[in-house]
Amino acid sequence: MRSYGQYCGLARSLEVVGDRWNLLIVRQLLISPARYRDLIDGLPGIATNLLADRLRDLEAAGVVERRLAGEGSVVEYALTPWGAELRQPIESLIRWSTPLMVRGRDGDAFRPEWLALALPALLDTRVKARRSATVGLEIGGPPFQLRATHSGFEVGPHDGRDLDATVRADPAYILGLAAGALTLSDARALGLVEIDGDESVIRTVFAA
User: Fold this and answer.
1) CA–CA distance, 169 with 34 (Å, rounded to integer)
2) How many whole angstroms from its chain centre is CA 110?
3) Angle between the 22-31 and 87-96 helix axes, to the nearest 10 degrees?
4) Contact criterion met (CB below 8 Å) for 174 and 139
5) DSSP state string for the chain
6) Is the overall model pTM greater than 0.90, yes or no?
7) How far is residue 36's CA from residue 50's CA, in Å, rounded to a whole number?
8) Mean pLDDT over all residues of the chain?
9) Rounded distance, CA 201 to CA 164, Å?
């Protein structure tokens, strides 16, 4: 671990998580504990030896820990309680990134599970009046669901429960709605989204 040689909280923090890929590894583990091969799949572009090095450094720093998954002997990686405290700064960075996410870039990889962190981060600070609802998200691939409750928002694979409405769109437009950068009326007028079910639920959940 390289040292900045500065008695500063930011400098000390960056010594631990500032290396390339470290915060993205934390992102994956905030979504859920994961096996090594799951991390490889969730981090497109990372080399296997680099992932091993980063996990070793994060484990030595006390951010990540290894544990046995279930009753088997399969090892998975998880955040320590201290590592899990990175959720707030990571969510703040996601909100800060909104101007950078207006347009996609050719060749950028995307994993639907990344919405599990991004959508709550964007909605929790913007949507005040919360109505309990479950919205289906069809963004290509297996369907996901966005659950709005009085305590916050959760995103995950559709678990079979009844949906109040479904949004069908490119992930970029779902993120635009969540960030308030795109109104539902404009998105529908431009043919960017399709809605099945109660549109008022979508408007309430996304404050659109």
Assistant:
1) 28
2) 11
3) 110
4) yes
5) --------HHHHHHHHH-STTHHHHHHHHHH--B-HHHHHHHSTT--HHHHHHHHHHHHHHTSEEEEE-TTSS-EEEEE-HHHHTTHHHHHHHHHHTGGGGSS--TT----GGGHHHHHHHHHHTT--S---EEEEEESSSS-EEEEEETTEEEEEE--S---SEEEEE-HHHHHHHHHTSS-HHHHHHTT-EEEEE-HHHHHHHHT-
6) yes
7) 12
8) 93
9) 7
CA distance to 5, 95, 180, per residue, from 99 (Å): 33, 9, 11
Would you mind telling me the total number of residues written for the chain in this entry?
208
Which residues fall within 8 angstroms of residue 33, CB to CB, at 6 or more apart? 67, 69, 76, 77, 78, 79
CA distance 135 to 196: 10
Residue 96: is it exposed, middle or buried by C-beta count within 10 angstroms (0-12/13-18/19+)? exposed
Assigned token pair, 81: 């309680």
pLDDT tens digits for range 143-192: 999 999 988 899 999 999 999 999 999 998 999 999 999 999 999 999 99
Asked if 90 and 117 count as a contact pair (C-beta separation under 8 A), the reply is: yes
